Amino acid sequence: MTTIDSVAVSGGGAVSTQTGANFVNVIFDWTSNPASGYAKFTSDTTFNIYLASYTDPTPGQLTGFIILQDGGTRYTTQHTACNNTNVLLPIRGKCNLVTNDPGASLTSHLPTTATPYITLAAGTYYLGGYDGNDAAGTVEFQITEGAYQEISPVPLPAGGLLLAGALGGIAALRRRKARKAA
Question: What CA–CA distances, in Å, run from 126 to 62, 72, 87?
Answer without folding.
Answer: 20, 11, 13
